Amino acid sequence: MMSKKPVRIYFLCIQNRCRSQIAEAFAKHYGKDNVIAESAGLEASDIHPLTVEVMKEVGIDISNQTSKKIDMKTFLASNVIVKLCENLVERCPVVPFGITNVQWNILDPLEHSEGNLEALRKNRDEIEKKVIELLKGMNVPV
């Protein structure tokens, strides 16, 4: 049986310190070799320690992931671009024809709830569900 090429997914948010990092980690976790997942922000910042902590709770270690700025080569090579926040809509590069453009409006828990761990867990679980749905929708075995 011919193996098909992995799906390239690029998760974007403003700072690449929380939501897009969580999405990237879940996509790698569930998609395994069928997915090449990366994430980036309009600006790079440090991954928030609470982001690492809430992922550790579900057995995923992201402590060596780094925060990155959007890279246009990666952007254009992606099959799917997932934008994880409202205010990215105005500032994100336009997704070219032929690339699936997905918009998830997920509030930044670090900004909207002062880094409340409970809010981060809720976000993490919501992102996990959305990632699984996204992969299933692309016929990626999860």
TrEMBL record:
Enzyme class: oxidoreductase
Keyword S-adenosyl-L-methionine: no
PANTHER family, A to Z: ARSENATE REDUCTASE
Coiled coil: 110-137
The organism's taxonomic lineage, starting at the top: Bacteria, Bacillati, Bacillota, Bacilli, Bacillales
InterPro entries, per the entry: Ptyr_pPase (IPR023485), Ptyr_pPase_sf (IPR036196)
Record-given protein name: Arsenate reductase
The Phosphotyrosine protein phosphatase I domain, residue ranges: 7-137
